[in-house]
Amino acid sequence: MRPQSKIAKGKELENWIAERLRLTGLDKRARRQIGSGSGNFKGDIWNDLNLCIEAKNQKNFKPAWFKQAERESLGYQEPIIVWHPPNTPMDNSKVFIN
């Protein structure tokens, strides 16, 4: 069963990204950031890679996401966006780095 709400779709992509970081060995401790956007860590994925990862599981790509990622990186992390196009496997997600 596919998640239907925006929140559930976002969590699905966040979990997938964290799992891929762990499985590939890039970051064995990567995980979804609970309450992302609040507190000291602003990105959607907690990681040791110095990346502020914003996960977007939405129909249309929005250039404004770059401003959000830059703002949430707080100037000390590299902001990146992972966008999952609709009706495609998670492996078809796109990564954008400024």
> What is the helix fraction of residues, given as a range?
25-40%
The end-to-end span amounts to: 34 Å
Strands of the biggest beta sheet: in what spatial order?
Answer: 3-4-5
Rg measurement, Å: 13 Å
Largest sheet properties = 3 strands, mixed
Number of helices: 2
Written description of the protein model:
By secondary structure, this protein is α+β, with helices and mostly antiparallel strands. 28% of the residues lie in helices and 20% in strands. It has 2 helices and 5 strands. It has helices spanning 6-23, 64-72; strands at 31-32, 45-46, 51-56, 78-83, 94-97. The longest helix has 18 residues, at 6-23. 27% of the residues are buried.
Characteristic key phrases:
single chain; 98 residues; alpha+beta; three-stranded mixed sheet; 2 helices
Q: What topology does this entry show?
A:
Layout: H1 6-23, E1 31-32, E2 45-46, E3 51-56, H2 64-72, E4 78-83, E5 94-97
Parallel strand pairs: 3-4
Antiparallel strand pairs: 1-2, 4-5
